[in-house]
Design goal:
By secondary structure, the protein is of the alpha+beta class. The protein has 15 helices and twelve strands. Strands 1, 2, 3, 4, 5, 6 and 7 form a seven-stranded antiparallel β-sheet that branches. A three-stranded antiparallel β-sheet has the order 8-10-11. Strand 3 and strand 4 form a beta hairpin.
Length: about 400
């Protein structure tokens, strides 16, 4: 899917299109806003089916059936569908607008800036993805009958992290429920192949465990920096998934903790009966590790990390939206503390939220300084040593840490 934005300010039913932000084989994606009866403007994303597909009755029926199922999902970690139907000759879905970036862009951005993506952040994101998936997997209709929803396309492109740190699973639009009116043709494959489960590649009936495998693939790549399944053709990739050996992540990155490696290898079992049986089980395993780890990330940590990676893009996007719509300023307004780039610490240093005030004022001041420097607060004695070295060299602690980090990144 191309993502080149182009201006398109036409009216589409009750929606005002602002920009076309992506074009794919199935649909065009627009940034838009909806104005209610009181004049309140709400940003939304419109997915409009391409005209040539609107003429195919079977595709339209499948699209609307699955969109209606997805519209029943209401969870903090799932992008909400607000509306769907037909305007003129075009079928569409109106979705929640997420002011953030998908993982397909976040990881490369960090790499381009020379910033290691923290392991605990990757685990936190995977945990939140599992929370959203488990809700969808367990969703029932009004009569208590399971909808048997499976996402079937859990990829970095469909995992968003908002600039407020909230993780969202996007696009249940190709999800398949076994009770939908029109079944997908036997053996038909959907989704991004390199993130498919073995059973999905083989055209078998899939269940929630297929999504668990896909989360495992994405998490493996985030933690190791290596793509798990590759090949010169789609057939070769699928053969790698179904028959290839999965190396332990420590083979590529020796410092991955054993409990994390165990989580990954269980999620990636080719035999689905040996995987986690629910996304909630996988989430529980991840959270158990994070809770026992020396640093447990929060939504605020993710927010601060993303804001520093994408500060310029955030401000540009905010400005573009505010320019096009009169009522989005409040919706997309950046926090006042983040509005001035000069107040931010160096981009490679991720600030943590302030702790509860404990200890004497001098000690609290030292701890606060360490938390402004790093995502993992430094022990007071280590911070004192840093201050002493910085003082001897006549530089600030901030500058010294930045120089040390730059040198480490250069020669690691």
């Amino acid at each position: 899917m191309s993502t080149g934005a182009s201006r398109d300010t036409s009216r589409f039913g009750k929606y005002q299109l602002i920009d076309r932000i992506a074009v794919g084989g199935m649909a065009e994606i627009f940034l838009a806003h909806q104005v209610d009866g009181e004049g309140l403007e709400t940003p939304v994303v419109i997915k409009r089916i391409r005209p040539h597909l609107s003429k195919h009755a079977s595709f339209v029926k499948m699209f609307l059936n699955e969109a209606r199922l997805a519209a029943q999902l209401n969870h903090p970690n799932i992008v909400q569908i607000h509306d769907l139907g037909k305007i003129g000759e075009s079928y569409f879905i109106a979705m929640e607008y997420i002011f953030g970036r998908d993982m397909r862009r976040i990881i490369p951005k960090a790499e381009a800036l020379g910033i290691p993506f923290p392991m605990v952040y990757a685990l936190k994101i995977a945990s939140d993805v599992c929370a959203g998936l488990h809700y969808a997997h367990r969703k029932v209709d009004l009569y208590g009958n399971p909808l048997n929803i499976v996402h079937r396309d859990v990829t970095p492109e469909n995992i968003f992290v908002a600039f407020d740190g909230m993780v969202k699973v996007l696009d249940f639009g190709i999800a398949k429920a076994t009770n939908q009116v029109e079944e997908t043709r036997s053996g038909e494959l959907k989704g991004k192949i390199s993130y498919m489960s073995p059973e999905q590649c083989q055209g078998k009936v899939v269940d929630c465990r297929s999504d668990i495998f896909s989360v495992g693939v994405a998490l493996y790549e985030w933690l190791t920096g290596f793509k798990l399944f590759t090949g010169e053709s789609e057939v070769a990739v699928m053969r790698s998934i179904t028959e290839g050996k999965i190396y332990a992540p420590s083979y590529f990155k020796a410092d991955i903790p054993e409990p994390v490696e165990a989580i990954l290898m269980k999620a990636l079992e080719k035999d689905r009966d040996r995987r986690y049986q629910t996304a909630a089980e996988m989430r529980a395993a991840i959270d158990a590790f994070l809770n026992a780890y020396e640093f447990t990330p929060t939504q605020l940590h993710l927010s601060n990390f993303l804001r520093q990676l994408f500060l310029d893009e955030m401000q540009a996007e905010q400005g573009r939206l505010v320019q096009q719509t009169s009522g989005l300023e409040e919706v997309l307004e950046l926090e006042e503390a983040k509005s001035d780039p000069s107040t931010l610490p160096p981009v490679a240093l991720v600030p943590a939220p302030p702790p509860a005030p404990v200890g004497p004022p001098a000690l609290r001041e030292k701890r606060n300084l360490s938390e402004r420097l790093l995502s993992v607060p430094l022990p007071t004695e280590q911070l004192a040593a840093l201050e002493a070295v910085a003082q001897r060299n006549g530089v600030s602690v901030n500058k010294m840490v930045a120089e040390l980090l730059a040198a480490w990144l250069k020669y690691r």
